Amino acid sequence: MATAIRLAIVGLGKIARDQHIPAIAGTEGIELAAIASRNASIDGIAHFATLDELLAAAPGIDAVALCTPPQVRHAQAAAALKAGKHVLLEKPPGATVSELPPLIAAARQTGRTLFATWHSRFASAVEPARTFLASREIKSVAVEWKEDVRVWHPGQAWIWEPGGLGVFDPGINALSILTRILPRPFFLTQAELSFPRNRAAPIAADLAFSDDTGLPIRAEFDWRQTGPQTWDIRVETDTGRLTLSSGGSRLEHDDRNLIDEKQAEYRGIYRRFVELIANGVSDVDLSPLVHVADAFMLGRRRDVEPFIED
Ligand code: NAP
Asked: What fold characterizes domain 123-260+293-304?
């Protein structure tokens, strides 16, 4: 058997602890060999304060998973590729669209894998929904992605800063599913972004998209939802309504339940990373990030009440 890929996690925050560490432990062909974190370590795993220190010490690391905020990801990815490491990027892949092509070029030049992950695409209902829609006439699409920011992003100052994306941090997950399941490319036609007066990123967004056939697509993202949380996509077709709910883990056709299965999305991500490295290829789809950039470009800004965390 080939030796396992020796991976380092950079940024030991919520997603690294909740998802990456268990997924790596459960995936054949890859193992956690080091951590770069300014504030935390794990017993028995080599620790470095920063990625630069890790790269300088070169402890036989093959790949890095960047679990840091998007604003610092480009510099880290560039340094890791330059040092000959394969790179896995958490979503969103960067703080701007234009910082990605140089990374794609660097990966090609160094013969390393660059993987821009979209974890929601690994939810169990996404591929079946794509297959279902491929042969249907689609009449309209409605997305509702509404959650409580205080529950899901406590204390995450970076998310409210420029490049942190605000409500598009979860909203881009819906866009990563839509860009996968709809058979044709679509584009933004109108947007209204609600910014708390004391914050640099939106707390809500109301978006309209269309495609070359005039398909109406609406998306509502909102971080002010308390009580039950909503991560739903409804698609009206010539043969009834397809509903993806719970972030892509449930699928219903009209009232018939087709799938209801919480799939380990990050296991899927790491299986794919191992496969990409074995095949010597990269996987970087920027389409969800392009839609978010369009929303910031075309969106009308609306000031709303300040957001105070406590
Ligand atoms: P987080 O809890 O704030 O963790 C991010 C980690 O990055 C921090 O713990 C810190 O690690 C490091 N970091 C923060 N600021 C930094 C800086 N200026 N320079 C270098 N390192 C810095 O955030 P998270 O929720 O894990 O999110 C990280 C990424 O994963 C985001 O892009 C997010 O969209 C994505 N993601 C999050 C979730 C989720 O449910 N939370 C789900 C899917 C994807 P150290 O203190 O260890 O250095």
From this structure: Dihydrodipicolinate Reductase; domain 2 (3.30.360)
Which residues surround ligand 1 with Cβ inside 6 Å? 11-16, 37-40, 67-70, 72, 90-91, 119, 156, 158, 169
CA atoms of 244 and 247, how far apart (whole Å) = 7
Q: Where exactly are the structural domains of the chain?
A: 5-116, 123-260+293-304
Judged by DSSP in three states, 141 sits in strand
Q: Say which CATH superfamily domain 5-116 falls into.
A: NAD(P)-binding Rossmann-like Domain (3.40.50.720)
Residues facing residue 32 across a β-bridge: 7
Which tokens belong to 299? 């969106």
Residue bearing tokens 């942190």: 164
- Spatial distance between the Cα atoms of 253 and 209, rounded to a whole number of angstroms: 23
- pLDDT by residue (tens digit) across 218-227? 999 999 999 9
- Write down the catalytic residue from 14, 91, 139, 146: 91
Q: Please write the tens of the pLDDT for every residue from 278-310.
A: 999 999 999 999 999 999 999 999 999 999 997
pLDDT value at position 1? 53
Tokens 């997950």, residue located? 173
Give distance in angstroms: CA of 213 to centre of ligand 1: 39
146 catalytic per annotation: no
Give start and end residues of each alpha helix (H) in the chain: 14-15, 21-25, 51-57, 73-82, 100-110, 126-134, 149-152, 168-181, 265-279, 287-298
Beta bridge partners of 158: none
Task: Kindly give the parts of the chain with pLDDT less than 50.
Answer: none
Which 8-state DSSP code applies to residue 199? Answer: -
Atom of ligand 1 nearest to the CA of 16: 26
pTM score of the predicted model: 0.97
**Fold match between domain 5-116 and domain 123-260+293-304:** no
